[in-house]
Amino acid sequence: MQKEYVVGVDLGGTKILTAVADLEGNILARVRKDTEAEKGKEAVIQKIKDTVYGVIKETDIDLSQVKGIGLGVPGPVNIKKGVIKHTPNLKLDNVNIIEELRELDTPIFLENDANAAALGEKWFGAGKAAENMIYMTVSTGIGGGVIINKEIFHGAGDAAGEIGHMTIIPDSDVQCGCGNYGCWEAIASGTALGRLGREAVEAGKDTLMSKLVNDPSEVNGAVVAKAAEKGDKVAREIMDKIADYLGIGMASLINIFNPDTIVIGGGVSQSWKLIEDKVNSTIKARAMNSLIEDVNIITAQLGSDVGVLGAVATALAELDLL
Ligand SMILES: [Zn+2]
C-alpha cells in the first residue's frame, strides 16, 4: 500500500486538534478533544494517541499509509531527541514524546507550536510566495517563527524565534511571564492592550470602553478594539500606542532578517486595519529604507487551523516532501 498521508497534531493547553492530510496539505479529516491537562502526563499522552487513531478511523486509509506525524508543542523542544523540554500549561516537562508514542509505529516529528504555525502559513497560508519570512502571532502573548530560505531557523537549542521577549522598554515596570521587564509581549500583546484599556477606565477617563463592560476588570483587548472601531478617542490612542510598540519590534526584525514577508497572526490580526497605518509609519521611521522596500506585511490566512496545518507542514518538511 502506498504511503501518501501525514498526520498533524496541534497539542494545546486546552485542546488537541489532530488531522490527517494528503501530501499537498489538504485535510481529509480532523478530530478535536479537550486536553484535560489536569489529569496528568499519562492521560494526555493517551489522548494524543486516541486522536491519531480516531482521525484515521474517520477516513478509509490505514495508519500504515501515514508517512509521518507532526506534533506542535506549546513550549521548547529538543527536536533530535524528541523531548518536550517544558510546557507551562501541560504536565509534559522532560518527556520523550517519540518514545511515549512508539506504539503508533510511525515517525514522529516535533516542533515548537509557533514555529509550526510559521511553517503552516508559509506552505498553506499567507506566505506561499515567501522565502524569508517572519511569522508573528499577537494575542495573549507574542510568539513567532523565523523562516530562512523556506526552512525554520531553529538556533542552537531549537528555541530560536522567541521574538516576544525582545526588550523594547528597558525601564518598564511591566514584568513579562519570562521574568524580564519591558519585553515586547509584555507591552504590545493583546494582554497589554487590555491592561491599558482597563487603566484608562479605572482612571475615570471619558471613554466608550466603560459603557461596554459592567466592571473595569472586564476590559480586555477585544473591548479596546471594539471601542476604537466605533471612533472612541481614548481607545484609539491606546491602539496607536500598541501599534507604535509593534512597529518598533517589527523594525528591528526587518533590520536583522531582511524578510520578504511578515505574516501577522493571532487576535490582533483581526484589528489589523485599525493599526496598520501607525505600524507602518513607525517601521518607516525606524527601519532602514532599503529593507522596508523588500518586505510585504500581510495578515495570516489559516485562522484556527494554523496549528494543525503547521504540524502537517512540520511532518512534510522533515520528510523532505515540501
Ligand atoms: Zn519576556
UniProtKB/TrEMBL annotation:
Report the EC number(s), separated by commas if there are several.
2.7.1.2
Keyword check for Kinase: yes
What range does the record give for the signal peptide? Answer: none
Presence of keyword Kinase: yes
- Which UniProt keywords are given for this protein, alphabetically ordered? ATP-binding, Kinase, Nucleotide-binding, Transferase
Single GO cellular component annotation?
cytoplasm
GO terms classed as biological process: glycolytic process
Q: Which InterPro entries match?
A: ATPase_NBD, ROK, ROK_cs, ROK_glcA
GO function term, MF aspect, one: ATP binding
Q: Which residues form a coiled coil?
A: none
Q: Which family does it belong to?
A: Belongs to the ROK (NagC/XylR) family.
Put simply, this protein is called Glucokinase
Q: Which organism is it from?
A: Orenia metallireducens
